[in-house]
TrEMBL record:
One of its GO terms (biological process) is pyridoxal phosphate biosynthetic process. Keywords: Cobalt, Cytoplasm, Magnesium, Metal-binding, NAD, NADP, Oxidoreductase, Pyridoxine biosynthesis, Zinc. Its EC number is 1.1.1.262. Its main location: cytoplasm. Catalyzes the NAD(P)-dependent oxidation of 4-(phosphooxy)-L-threonine (HTP) into 2-amino-3-oxo-4-(phosphooxy)butyric acid which spontaneously decarboxylates to form 3-amino-2-oxopropyl phosphate (AHAP). It comes from Phaeovulum vinaykumarii. Substrate binds at residues 147-148, 289, 298, 307. One of its GO terms (molecular function) is cobalt ion binding. This is 4-hydroxythreonine-4-phosphate dehydrogenase. The active site is located at the dimer interface.
Length: 349
């Protein structure tokens, strides 16, 4: 696969990072496993992987050594002694598995504060610990389906794409759901030619910019079983998905499909592409979470800053028990650091 070198960049209105690549971790839902996996990530890597936890230190597991910092740039030094914490006070303590409505407003405020810090150049990238979407919607009227859409809004209502990536399986896997958190019954209406074309173009640009792929190879899933099987199982592939794919190929894009979704994730098929563009959430996320739940990373393409996240959620059923696996958080932190370095230097991470 050929690689591309790009110039260092900072989006207009976004100051260049002056923290030397420190990753900011938004605490997410404190009743979930976020504080625990952040503490465990620090315990595993310490100053090797400097990051700052933006949240209430009272929500960390009892006994977590932490160091209060006043700005992210202090993290590399502070991380030698404890988890660096940029304090953000919450009204309520964290009760494992039982989100507090009063805390919901601060969960959202932490995400907004993190983006502001990055906009000012105080941190290099954002890694979000999981939020509980329903808790934020019911507790604080959160108007977004998730981080992805909220971050797009905070960045100026820019078009973005959700990608989940794993490099722990061979061949690796990157998946993109073109529609995200909507009911399955809404997918055929929501998946329009304009949306799918935008998702494909943002993914293509993101693979070039953040993964140094000069000519990304994309695989496009059909919407229907067997990609419609010549119209026998649905009209969308013939009506517009195949013509859109043809148009993009005619421009020179390396794009296969529409492919039958059930046969595009086995190892030999995965070796043929750098990212799979899928029609809906579960078509994309089931394969990657099945193959690599522990090491998968969720990232947002199209933002003017690097954002990653563990692939899992708040895991209320195990919160507070000390058994949460920090592997996905560690992978997300590493990817955030690597992508931020690449954007800062213009070289592949
Ligand atoms: N980036 C984010 O903010 C994300 C948030 N969510 C939200 O999380 C909430 C719960 O979602 P679920 O579907 O229950 O998925 P989940 O990922 O929280 O849990 C699914 C299963 O995986 C286990 N699990 C998750 N993380 C683990 C870890 N680090 N170590 C060991 N086991 C782990 C859980 O115990 C549970 O059995 C929902 O509100 C969802 O919207 C889900 C995914 C990502
Ligand atoms: N299923 C993926 C997920 O829920 C992550 O959403 P987001 O909070 O990263 O937008």
């Amino acid at each position: 696969m050929s690689r591309v070198s790009l110039s260092p960049d900072a989006a207009p209105g976004w100051a260049p990072d002056r923290s030397n690549g420190v990753v900011l971790v938004s605490c997410g839902e404190p009743a979930g496993v976020g504080p625990e996996i952040a503490a465990k990530a620090w315990a595993a890597r310490g100053a090797d992987l400097p990051f700052v936890y933006l949240g209430d230190p009272a929500h960390l597991p009892a006994g977590t050594p932490f160091v209060r910092v006043s700005e992210p740039a202090e993290a590399p030094q502070a991380a030698r002694h404890g988890l660096p914490v940029l304090p953000h006070p919450f009204p309520d303590p964290a009760e494992p598995g039982r989100p507090s409505a009063a805390n919901a407003t601060e969960v959202i405020a932490v995400i907004a504060r993190a983006v502001d810090l990055i906009r000012q150049g105080a941190a290099g990238a954002l890694c979000t610990a999981p939020i509980h979407k329903h808790a934020l919607q019911s507790g604080a009227g959160f108007a977004f389906p998730g981080h992805t859409e909220y971050l797009a809004h905070l960045a100026g209502d820019v078009p973005v794409v959700m990608m989940l990536a794993s490099s722990c399986v061979a061949p690796g896997l990157r998946v993109v759901p073109a529609t995200i958190h909507i009911a399955l019954s809404e997918v055929p209406r929501a998946l329009t030619p304009a949306l799918l074309e935008q998702v494909i173009r943002i993914t293509h640009a993101g693979l070039r910019r953040d993964f140094a792929l000069a000519a990304p190879r994309l695989a496009l899933a059909g919407l229907n079983p067997h990609a419609g099987e010549d119209g026998a199982m649905g009209p969308e592939e013939i009506a517009w998905i195949a013509p859109l794919a043809g148009k993009l190929r005619a421009e020179g894009m390396d794009l296969a499909g529409p492919l039958p979704p059930d046969t595009m994730f086995h190892p030999a098929a995965r070796a043929r592409y750098d990212a799979a563009i899928c029609a809906y959430h579960d078509q994309a996320l089931i394969p990657i979470k099945t193959l690599d739940f522990a090491g998968g990373v969720n990232l947002t393409l199209g933002l003017p800053f690097v954002r990653t996240s563990p692939d899992h959620g708040t895991a209320f059923n195990i919160a507070g028990r000390g058994i949460a696996d920090p592997a996905s958080m560690l992978a997300a932190l590493e990817m955030a650091r690597d992508l931020a370095r690449r954007r800062a230097t213009g070289r592949a991470a």
